[in-house]
Design goal:
This protein is mostly helical. It has eight helices and four strands, in the order H-H-H-H-E-E-H-H-H-E-E-H. Strands 1-2 form a two-stranded antiparallel ribbon. It starts with 6 loop residues before the first helix and ends in a 15-residue tail after the last helix. Residues 219-227 have low confidence and may be disordered.
Length: 227
């Protein structure tokens, strides 16, 4: 980004998105934890939800019993956190993301980011513009595929109901990550399918192949080598 970012804001952003801040408002954290946990829990089979819900109680108890340490370090972190939020709110043309490699935080000019990502999405050999939201057609086609697999005995009815039963979903979303290790900082398009209709199916197929495909030390006598 060409914007001038205060040094203390830069230092705070360099901590990365995995850095854990001290908890001061326990009530807010607990409510946020429950909301996100229940949202994720709904993606699990019904027979697994109670088990994971019970296991979460120890985490909630740990948060409830946590006592904020009123010291210089914690106070400084919270102050920097608020200052960084204020700075980004006052400068909406700056977006903060991670680099494609290196676990590095990057500040970008929003207009430049949109321009570069849109240019990549204009590649007609890779992407196609659709005139309407294809989510309903995607769900319908997936249901037909699952019914066909069930009728042929590839999957069971219980599996279909527990893992793949859905009524809605969102389309996969694309975003760009800057390749800061390369000249002119090109972007890499990432397509996230989380919460899309195909996400659960892809996880199931990945697990199925991982558990059944032979590992390298099991195929050394084969004339075919999987790399």
């Amino acid at each position: 980004s060409s914007a001038t970012i205060p040094e203390d804001v830069v230092g705070f952003l360099q901590l990365g998105d995995n850095f854990s801040l001290p908890i001061k408002n326990k009530k807010s954290v607990i409510l946020e934890f429950i909301k996100n946990f229940e949202y994720s829990l709904n993606k699990l089979p019904l027979n697994k939800r109670s088990e994971f819900r019970n296991k979460s109680m120890s985490l909630l108890n740990a948060i409830s019993s946590y006592s904020y340490q009123n010291n210089a370090i914690n106070n400084c972190l919270l102050e920097l956190h608020q200052k960084t939020k204020n700075f980004l709110t006052e400068n909406p043309n700056i977006i903060v993301t991670r680099a494609d490699k290196g676990n590095t935080t990057v500040a970008l000019n929003r207009d430049d980011y949109i321009k570069n990502v849109e240019k990549l999405l204009e590649d007609k050999d890779t992407y196609l513009i659709v005139l309407k939201n294809p989510i309903n057609k995607l769900i319908s086609s997936l249901r037909e595929l699952l019914i066909k697999w069930k009728n042929k005995g590839f999957i069971s009815l219980n599996l279909v109901m527990a893992k793949f039963d859905f009524t809605d979903g969102s389309l996969p979303r694309a975003y760009g990550l800057p390749k800061i290790h390369k000249v002119n900082c090109p972007y890499r398009i990432i397509v996230s399918s989380i919460d899309s209709p195909l996400y659960k199916l892809s996880l199931y197929l990945h697990k199925l192949m991982f558990n059944n495909f032979p590992t390298n030390n099991e195929i050394y006598n084969s004339k075919y080598v999987m790399i």
